[in-house]
Design brief:
Strand content: 15-25%
Radius of gyration: 22 Å
Domain Carboxylesterase type B: 3-311
Number of strands: 15
Mean pLDDT: 96
Pfam families: COesterase
Family: Belongs to the type-B carboxylesterase/lipase family.
Distance between the termini: 62 Å
Keywords: Hydrolase
EC number: 3.1.1.-
Length: 483
């Protein structure tokens, strides 16, 4: 059965699926190709008649799949009642190392969240070099500008889908959380959302010199310079391949790019002083976004999914790695705090801290200092050797942890525990989106009350006390070139 909704650009025809109305491939900006390539997003071109919105729109150019079409800037909407008014709105911003973004990912389908009482929007944005390379003749952070265009579309149109444009929560994990951290301190995003959920916030934001150096190397793969006029005619898939080659060589760039060499991506938001005026931690501590409620969280075993990429490590390798991370508390603090850890355990703990856990904790504390209301959680439950791995909390909130993750094979006991935890996490996240309160005490740097999601979920002081103490006097900011 089909369902029609009138948007500001024209009517879209979606479909009813298991009690949820779904509208896919809805454009929110013009195709970013031709003269619009590497430009800020332009208004969508209106259409006549009813536009088919029963199939997902093409994602932006990204590794692992050929680029399809040109209408990359599209979104999907899930709603239980498009005829209703006033439902809370959750706008999902995908993670994926600033390289991937695809609303058709079954792990990130919004149907379950919609059935539980929200209007869910999942928006594409330009990733990789298309969205984040620093190019002469183009604005920085085009991917972030795409997200802002999608949020403006929500303000203009979501009431027609049953949502309340005055009650919008942005929700993102990993690179999606990094994007939201940037949106929180970007003046042009002011007023577009009321609340924010940040899962596993990465600590990588680039200074202009590092971003320009990365763009130069990506362009050199194509025999070109990092200028719009040199790259505008390059096929999108060729630009993706060039960025992929640079990504594969990241471990060789530690001498110039520093700790970025230990990450899975050469792209991050650029603190350019214009589009993104300051690093999120500094700006939030000075009161930016003090009126936005924040729910911040991470998993206990953040680095387990990426550990295989670095392979084994000995004591000397741990010394080198931990001392090059920027900012770094140094290997000696880690050895003192974790005296019985093996080299691999020490590396994995430090990388979890540096890349995700401490950036999230420090963001929560910076926002508290700036006057915002903040809630904090940590996921400690897992069902296999990876433990509470990166992105598992996202799957539990979306209710998709049983899809091709090995959970079903772990047995009915693990499945039952996952379902109970999924229901709890989703209810508390939706309570936050609807009311600004997930149901437990707010986080403060003194009390450090944290929701600990586990087989038996509790409230406790922040669990990672040793790591918190190690990082207490380090500050996250913009990463620059090493000299």
């Amino acid at each position: 059965m089909t369902t029609h909704v009138r948007t500001s650009a024209g009517t879209v025809r979606g479909s009813w699926e298991d009690g949820v109305a779904v509208y896919r491939g809805v454009p929110f900006a013009a195709p970013p190709v031709g003269p619009n390539r590497f430009a800020a997003p332009r208004p969508v071109v209106p259409w006549d008649g009813a536009r088919d919105a029963t199939r997902f729109g093409p994602p932006p150019p990204q590794p692992g799949r050929p680029t399809e079409g040109v209408d990359w800037l599209n979104l999907a909407v899930w709603t239980s009642d498009p005829g209703r008014t006033g439902l809370p709105v959750v706008v999902w911003i995908s993670g994926g190392t600033y390289l991937n973004c695809n609303s058709s990912n079954p792990h990130l389908a919004g149907a379950t969240l919609a059935r539980d009482g929200a209007v869910v929007v999942s928006a594409h944005y330009r990733t990789g070099a298309e969205g984040f390379a620093r190019l002469d003749g183009a604005p920085d952070n085009r991917g972030l500008l795409d997200q802002i265009a999608a949020l403006r579309w929500v303000q203009d149109n979501i009431a027609a889908f049953g949502g309340d444009p005055g009650n919008v929560t942005v929700f993102g994990q990993s690179a999606g959380a990094g994007s939201i951290a940037a949106l929180l301190v970007m003046p042009i995003a002011f007023g577009l959302f009321r609340r924010a959920i940040l899962q596993s916030l990465p600590g990588t934001f680039f200074a202009p010199d590092l971003a320009a150096d990365v763009a130069t190397e990506v362009s050199a793969e194509l025999g070109r310079s990092p200028r719009v006029e040199d790259l505008v005619a390059v096929a999108p898939d060729d630009l993706v391949a060039a960025a992929r080659s640079v990504t594969d060589r990241l471990p060789q760039r530690v001498g110039r790019w520093g700790s970025v060499a230990y990450t899975p991506t050469p792209f991050s938001p650029v603190v350019d002083g214009e589009v993104l005026p300051a690093s999120p931690w500094a700006a939030l501590s000075h009161g930016a976004a003090r009126d936005v409620d924040l729910l911040v969280g991470h998993t206990r075993d953040e680095f387990s999914l990426l550990a295989a990429r670095l392979g084994d490590v000995d004591a000397a390798g741990v010394d080198t790695l931990l001392n090059v991370l920027t900012p770094t508390p140094g290997v000696q603090r880690y050895r003192a705090a974790y005296p019985f850890a093996s080299p691999i355990e020490l590396r994995d703990t430090a990388m979890s801290d540096w890349l995700w856990r401490m950036p999230a904790l420090h963001l929560a504390e910076a926002a508290c200092a700036g006057g915002a209301r903040v809630w904090l959680y940590e996921l400690c439950w897992g069902f296999n050797s990876l433990g509470a791995s990166h992105s598992l909390d996202t799957l539990l909130v979306f209710g998709t942890a049983e899809i091709e993750t090995g959970l079903t094979e772990a047995g009915p006991g693990a499945v039952a525990k996952a379902r109970r935890l999924s229901n709890l996490m989703r209810a508390e996240h939706l309570s936050f989106a609807a009311t600004g309160n997930p149901g437990w005490a707010r986080y403060t740097p003194h009390e450090r009350v944290t929701r600990v999601y586990d087989a038996r979920s509790t409230l406790a002081r922040y669990p990672e006390e040793r790591s918190r103490s190690i990082w207490r006097d380090r500050r996250f900011g913009a990463l620059g070139l090493r000299t």
